[in-house]
Amino acid sequence: MAENDKIIDEVVGNDYKYGFTTNIEQEFAAVGLSEDTVRFISAKKNEPEWMLEWRLKAYKAWLKMEQPKWQNVHFPNIDFQSIIYYAAQKKKKVINSLDDVDPEIRSTYDKLGIPIQEQKLLAGVAVDYVMDSESVITTFRESLKEKGIIFCSISEAIREHPELVKQYLGSVVPQRDNYYAALNSAVFSDGSFVFIPKGVRCPMELSTYFRINAENTGQFERTLIIAEEGSYVSYLEGCTAPMRDENQLHAAVVELITMDNAEIKYSTVQNWYPGDKEGKGGIYNFVTKRGMCKGKNSKISWTQVETGSAITWKYPSCILKGDNSIGEFYSVAVTNNYQQADTGTKMIHIGKNTRSRIVSKGISAGKSQNSYRGQVQVHKTADNAYNFSQCDSLLIGDKCGAHTFPYLEIKNMTGKVEHEATTSKIGEDLLFYCNQRGLTNEEAVSMIINGYCKEVFKQLPMEFMVEAQKLLSISLEGSVG
Amino acid sequence: MLSIKNLTVAIGEKKILSDFNLEIKDGEIHAIMGPNGTGKSTLASTLAGKEEYEVLSGEVIFNGKNLLEMGADERAREGVFLAFQYPVEIPGVSTTNFMKAAVNAKRKHHGLDPMDAKDFLKLMKEKLALVEMNKEFTSRSINEGFSGGEKKRNEIFQMAMLEPALCLLDETDSGLDIDALRIVANGVNQLKSKNRSFLIITHYQRLLNYIVPDFVHVMYGGRIVKSGGKELALKLEEQGYDWIKEEVGELI
Ligand SMILES: Nc1ncnc2c1ncn2[C@@H]1O[C@H](COP(=O)(O)OP(=O)(O)OP(=O)(O)O)[C@@H](O)[C@H]1O
Ligand SMILES: [Mg+2]
After folding, report:
1. Does the beta-carbon distance from A428 to B90 stay under 8 Å?
2. Mean pLDDT of all residues in chain A?
3. Contact B76 A436 (CB under 8 A)
4. N or C: which end of chain A has fewer CB within 10 A?
5. Residue A296 to residue A308: CA distance in whole angstroms
6. How far is the CA of A429 from the centre of ligand 1 (A)?
7. pTM of the model
8. In B, which residues are within 8 Å of A439 by CB distance?
9. Do A256 and A290 contact (CB within 8 A), yes or no?
């Protein structure tokens, strides 16, 4: 198969278009992690005592834990003492309006194609901009406030809404849940907080844009979204990082909570720097995302488009506690060159008549490895639970790998669990057909992939769908000759 | 239009076309017939630029350009169209979107702006009518779940959309019912023009009742062994290929 070899050899670097750095004066915590680091971060954030204690508890738990090794990814040991755990803009001033944002930071977001500007506001998306350890600005908050919606940085929420944070932080992902969640709980620096009051349908998409800028720093953001009875919110998360030769750690925690009849739709377009085409550098994306359908008839839907990171390791999950609650997971994970992804979901059925749906599309190119790992648990209490899983893998070339690890744990037989899986290749016949209609290989692959992922893409809000489609084409650029 | 000289093509070690020659002038319709496995599809795919087929020698000039130097996609944009014997399915991609991309790729190649949405829809409607196809097909994923006959019709629809100079039809008539055959032939006849040529591969003379060829060629053992007019097809239908094989027996 000389042809296939040629195809692989022509795999050229995905031109990562977000690899620049921003020159702003920043202040950092001392390198490494100790109790002092935790205290330093907490102090920088002007946190109340209870929060510091919460962090220290997590830190102590973390010290006793071991890095998990079961996932199907390979990387050298991370030296947690060589990471900087806090980096923020030095020149602090109170930011009341868009005009107060540092022009360097503004132009960063402009370059990323997400201008901190009126047009974004007009597009009806409220955005929280987080660079390294700090939220830069949250737009649109006044008009949200009128409806009783709180959308702010988590640091601000800790100060302004301690009762809510105290009640819910760690309620879905406890401090000692896993190694990286414990680390995050100890040192998280910023992230978003959303509270949608009873009966309110959030009138616009809420969005956080995460950006790693500083060198040798880890990003540990924390997101908490609470949807009260009968409320609805659609939330989007995007992220990029500069191109650097060393690996950087991103260990976030996201917690979602829905009460009776509430719904949260959480979409991610993940585009952390994947490393170069030889596999040097890139972000380690070790994230814990979990939602709790606490109330009856509530619904949590995860949609993720994962194109970036050197290693992605995450399983956005749903605990379906309320009767009739619904969990959904729609995922597109693309790996190229030397990227590794081990991603999937967990659906934990506890309430009666709970339903879950998993649609996973893994696309592997280059020498990458792409694993789907999904768990469906049906507890004794979960009468008539229903799960449907569809896991498809698409291979481009023959040097990459796709793996599927479904786990089932059924303790109540009244329900039904269905699993379908396919593996396919972008074959030469398919490419030739497209070529014969005048499309280049690149155009053909982009079209085929977008068709393949349609079911997931259509879950995304319109403008993010377009962005996701473009990203996919970029990350697979040059994957066929 | 097309001039093929001494074309020899192999797949791996196996020679499939050997010393193949054919001239097609503007506006002409040529039919190629021949037993299974003689290299008809190989000829069509080689002209369309499929990479597995290795050209060992010979030349192909298409409208003054060396076709063999171009990639498959460029040949298509230059005006070579192949209606496939076995069209593929592309899940999740509608015929509309596929054609939009194809039409605009061709326009770009010729220095034109993308077609605007309204004109495109108009063009689609017009060409759908040509092959009496329901609009509903164009919003479905290409060929997915299409019947054999529908796939073939979809090929002719795409051909009509792209307005190629050279149309290669590989057994488009196979698997068509009587009505569909008439419809497809009708479509092709409407596309006939003085600067568009056709190379039609078929096993059945029936198609040639509808689309009247200027020349009929018989292919055997990777080359044309006999050429004639429409009456040659009738003779083949009556007598099969044995007499041809006998006639050329010494040659091969
Ligand atoms: N990819 C391939 N690998 C190996 N052999 C091939 C390949 N493609 C075609 N061949 C062989 O080349 C020869 C010619 O095949 P081709 O498809 O061109 O015949 P055809 O004249 O179109 O036949 P039919 O009338 O059955 O469509 C056959 O013997 C076939 O098995
Ligand atoms: Mg054939």
Report:
1. no
2. 82
3. yes
4. N
5. 36
6. 14
7. 0.81
8. 73, 101-102, 105
9. yes
Q: Is the CB–ligand 1 distance for residue B36 below 6 Å?
A: yes
B162-203 pLDDT per residue, tens: 999 999 999 999 888 888 899 999 999 999 999 999 999 999
Q: Is B73 within 8 Å of A440 when comparing Cβ atoms?
A: yes
How confident is the model over A89-111, as a mean pLDDT?
Answer: 59
In the 3-class helix/strand/coil scheme, how is chain A assigned residue by residue?
Answer: CHHHHHHHHCCCCCCCCCCCCCCCCEEECCCCCCHHHHHHHHHHCCCCHHHHHHHHHHHHHHHCCCCCCCCCCCCCCCCCCCCECCEEECCCCCCCCHHHCCHHHHHHHHHCCCCCCHHHHHCCEEEEEEECCEEEEECCHHHHHCCCCEEEEHHHHHHHCHHHHHHHCCCCCCCCCCHHHHHHHHHCCECEEEEECCCCECCCEEEEEEECCCCCECECEEEEEEECCCCEEEEEEEEECCCCCCEEEECCEEEEEECCCCEEEEEEEECCCCCCCCCCCEEEEEEEEEEEECCCCCEEEEEEEECCCCEEEECCEEEECCCCCEEEEEEEEEECCCCEEEEEEEEEECCCCCEEEEEEEEEECCCCEEEEEEEEEECCCCCCCEEEEEEEEEECCCCCEEEEEEEEEECCCCCEEEEEEEEEECCHHHHHHHHHCCCCHHHHHHHHHHHHCHHHHCCCCHHHHHHHHHHHHHHCCCCCC
* Domains of chain B and any CATH numbers: 2-251 (3.40.50.300)
Residue whose structure tokens are 């002038």: B25
